[in-house]
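no rush on this but wanted to send it before i forget. theres a chain ive been looking at and ive put its sequence and its fold in token form underneath. i want to understand how the tokens follow from the sequence so walk me through it. thanks a lot i owe you, the record is right below:
>
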Amino acid sequence: MPINQNHPAHPRLSIEIALSPAFHDLDPMDIVWHGNYPKYLEIARCALLSQFNYDYPQMKASGYAWPIVDMRLKYVKPARFEQKLIVRAEIVEWESRLKINYLIKDAVSGQKINQAHTIQVAVDMSTGEMQYVCPAILWERLGVEEPQ
């Protein structure tokens, strides 16, 4: 569920969502298993891209796949069962790749739980070729100017 879609630098290029880890996300130590954090990033990324009407079904319809080619996560504190979390996703690069930064924090204390980023590249689905400049459809959907 989106909470805030405004950011001073780029009012439309970020979103915050709320979520709480489910019991099946825990490991034997009763904390969120590290492999579940990418799922939380994916939920935020889909919410972010949906606000531009360019989530995965629209990407596919436009003729481009957007595989993640790099993902980095830094674990700061463990998240726990039913802890109220805020996941912020912000598009920070969009010229030659789509880079999204993430911050997961405790909704009550504001303490950082995790920070991450993902990098996606456009791949022409008809040829399988990676695009070295993001396609015009991304620029159009984000509402940013295409490079000259």
Q: What stands out?
A: The helical segments are 37-50, 56-61, 136-142. The CA atoms of residues 140 and 146 lie 8 Å apart. The first strand starts at residue 2 and ends at 4. The beta strands are 2-4, 14-19, 64-65, 68-75, 85-93, 98-106, 112-120, 123-124.
